[in-house]
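Exercise 3.2. Students should predict the tertiary structure of the chain below and write it as structure tokens, then compare their answer with the key that follows.

Predict this chain's 3D structure.
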Amino acid sequence: MKRPYPTYDVLARWESPSFNDATRETLTERLERVPERRFFTEDEWSRLEAVVARLIPQPDRARPIPITPWIDQKLVEERGEGYRFDDLPPQAQAWRRGLAGIEAEAQKRLSKSFVDLGADDQDLILRCVELGEIDGDAWGDMSAQRFFSELLVRTVATLYYAHPVAWNEIGFGGPAGPRGYVRLGVGERDPWEAPQESVQ
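Answer key:
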């Protein structure tokens, strides 16, 4: 993968004014205290891992950024956004039904479990869910399209970019506090931010 910041490492700022104790504690949790499975069944966990690997492939990483464990923790702790769409059930039900719906689509269309499909076929199933071209029996009254865009993709992307390894990819210096960002114009950057390098 071509990266505009190939040598940037946000963790080099660990002892700088960019980070305070609260930031360091949060990053330590994300890096070293990855939650274990408590909400999902083993099958659901494996299926979600396979889905995440298609939404944000990480083939160049020996240790991919973990996403499924943090979704599991969010559901165990019942942490939501403070609202939900009227065509989605409460989030715990939505995740279970959505993962079951993805499995049903794989079985119906290709007679295999989602986790046993090749990458192209997994993408096909996910595209059908994204477009709402699904078997209504598996999804019931829940919107497959809404689940895909507003719950699945949004959550996966949010958790991916909450990880400092992903920050390195985009040259992000971390939270605005305690130092803060001053130069906010287009093309401007603070002197301590990562300069974009020649793409490798």
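Discussion points: Helices lie at 21-32, 42-55, 68-76, 91-110, 119-131, 136-139, 144-160, 164-170. The chain has eight helices and no strands.
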